[in-house]
Amino acid sequence: MQVDSEAIAAASSQGGVLRRVAPTALAIVPVSMLFGVLASRADWSLLDVVLISLLGFSGSGQFALLPLAESGAGFFTMLLITASINSRYLPIAYMSSRRLPRAIGQRALLAHMLGDEAYATEQEQDRPAAVWVIRGTIYLAWVLAALLGALLGRLIPTAWIGANVNLGYPASVVLMYLSITQLRLRLFEPGKRAAQALVAVGLCAVTALLLIKLLGPVYFWIPSVLLATAILKRAKL
Question: Measured between alpha carbons, how far is residue 7 from residues 10, 13, 16, 33 in Å?
Fold first, then answer.
């Protein structure tokens, strides 16, 4: 018990938190740079890239905006699609709300900086100070890397990148890896029944597939997220 307490204290110290978040922050740098490169090649200004990274801060949502903007989609269409994609943050925001400070302004800012990477890095025993370090580090790394990518995008010759190359693919790979890592940690967390957790995750997957079949690949997203939130809450995951 003493060893566990010492390990928790070490992981919660500022140095321990920085060591924990550093690999994740480095991992998202190339993904954010890819967004900056693609946005630059789509004639987005540096200010556009910085503002969407600061205010949007959603990897998949930002990548989804690129083809929508190029096709001339309206503002409300882009807002609806982005909100639909980002609705996946509802369950993780709910589950991580106990780690946030009580001040409304700080809670709002930290909630804005919540992402898949931060949620996968944080631990249940983290205090608000640790959450500030984790989310702030990832947020800053994302914004700065996007700006760097936009600058590089102006320097990379068009001939170097073929028209059929999907530069956004690594973003999906990173997100998939983080999702699998988080599931593995949650399923085999001490004190939790792995079988019950597996059933809950399987039920979420089946629900999503049924909704895709019924509603299609666009409109299934929000009801799927809401039902998954209810299922995981009931399973206490």
Answer: 5, 10, 10, 35
Q: Which positions ≥6 away from 196 have C-beta within 8 Å?
A: 235
Residue 116 domain-assigned (yes or no): yes
Residue 199's CB: how many other CB atoms inside 10 A? Answer: 13
Which is nearest to 12 in space by CA: 158, 125, 163, 176? 125
User: Tens digits of per-residue pLDDT, 141-189?
Assistant: 999 999 999 998 888 776 666 555 555 555 566 566 666 666 666 666 6
Q: For residue 156, how many C-alpha atoms fall within 13 Å in the half-sphere facing its CB?
A: 19
Give the single-character DSSP code of 192: S
Torsion, CA 198, CA 24, CA 64, CA 182, rounded to 10: 10
- Write out the E strands in 76-189: none
CA distances 26 to 32, 81, 143, Å, are 10, 28, 13
Other CB atoms within 10 A of residue 105 CB: 8
Q: Does residue 233 fall inside a structural domain?
A: no
The pLDDT, as a whole number, for residue 62 is 80
| Cβ count near 31 (within 10 Å) | 22
Q: For the chain, what is the domain count?
A: 1
Tell me the C-alpha to C-alpha distance, in Å, between residue 18 and each of 109, 138, 154, 218: 20, 11, 33, 38
Residue 191 lies in a domain: no
Q: Which amino acid is at 12?
A: S
| Domain enclosing residue 151, as ranges | 2-158
98-144 pLDDT, tens digit per residue, is 889 989 999 999 988 988 888 888 888 899 999 999 999 999 999 99
